[in-house]
Amino acid sequence: MLSSRLSSCPKRRIEHTLSTHYCHNLYDFRRYSTQRLTPPSPQHSIYISNSTNPYFNLSFEDWLFRRKAADKPLLLLYRDDPCVVIGRNQNPWKEVNLPVLRASKTIPFVRRRSGGGTVYHDLGNTNFSIHLPRTSFDRHMTAQVVLRAVRSLGIDATVNDRNDICVGTEKVSGSAYKIVSQRAYHHGTMLISTKLETLGDLLHTHSKDTMETKGVASVRSPVRNLQQFKRGVTHGAFVEAVMHEFRKEYGLLGNDDKVQMIDEDDCRDIEYIQHGMSELPSWEWAYGQTPEFTYTVHQTFKWGSAQAKIKSKHGIILSCDLCVSGPTEGTDTTAGGSVASMSAALQGVTAVSMDEPLRFVVKEVEQMLQGRRYGFISAREILSGLGTHDNTKVGAVEDLVSWLVNLMDS
Hints:
It comes from Lentinula raphanica. Pfam families: LplA-B_cat. One of its GO terms (cellular component) is mitochondrion. Pathway: Protein modification; protein lipoylation via exogenous pathway; protein N(6)-(lipoyl)lysine from lipoate: step 2/2. The protein has 14 helices and 16 strands. The chain is of the alpha+beta class and about 400 residues long. The chain has a six-stranded mixed beta sheet with strand order 10-11-6-2-1-13, sandwiched between helices. It has a four-stranded antiparallel beta sheet with strand order 12-14-15-16, with helices on both faces. Helix 3 packs across helix 9 and helix 6 packs across helix 8 (about 235-250). The longest helix has 16 residues, at about 235-250. The two termini are about 25 Å apart. Mean pLDDT is about 85; it is low at about 1-25 and about 330-355.
């Protein structure tokens, strides 16, 4: 993680949001500091957030979106501490490498309020948000504003058919949108010096081809940083360039040209923002908003094979249908057995074909999983809740339950 403390840069309230990497050649944020209002008002056209808290920045963005005059343009620029941000209608179990995320202990995933795909934020990534009246909103035109800003930095960029900014065939920026009755916004990321290896680790997931979701899947694309094309590009330079192009595009003059700097402390008394900051990290929003999905998986064990079909909606398990059989002649029963061999072993096999004790336990496991939070179940909890059965089947039951819990936790 880039350092968040600058001993050589003044203005303590501003410096905590800037990394040492950006201390040099950075435009002077101090010239805007006297224009800060407490509490902030949605009357301005350009905002720069000093906060690097993703829950605050997304809540503040939504507050502006709901309260800015419907006929006026608005620009918000900010950076976040390391986090993974998923789209409003996405499935975190399919989009995010959750084991790697948990292992980091400091990087959360955040479900934003707009659509689009999954992205990684850190202090090497600058976020822009352009709000307009719905009647004049054109995502291609807003992309052109950002494109002109990048080109003004000396980088030969283009816009692809998804309105992402690219250099050659590689993306340096992704976009998402939100449209309501009178307003719309285009917000996105600009990779300047982000840690691409961390991005790759957190967003690289097993294909989970058999997880069928009603949500929106991300379109995977190769990405690069602007600094890989021009070393001297900084966060400050990009911010200045975007503000310049935004002013030109929307003819901002006089008071409309002033920049409003924002701190979290200024918003302590704004109930809407405080509610948003509490809601975004909650289970009900982060996981409970997950669209319905079905996950069908196979596994082989030393004692036989298993198939599970799990249905979940809003993060709750609706059903788990299990099919377990003993070893079939000619079938690989090691843990690494192929999907093809597993499927072949399970053709025509039902729970009825098992001996009675194990069949009864499987039905109990199905019933115990129903209604629970997907991915928030411990194997010990399930095993301790099962009745007493034939001891010769204990190992098979433990294997089965551990497998189910682990696959839902990944």
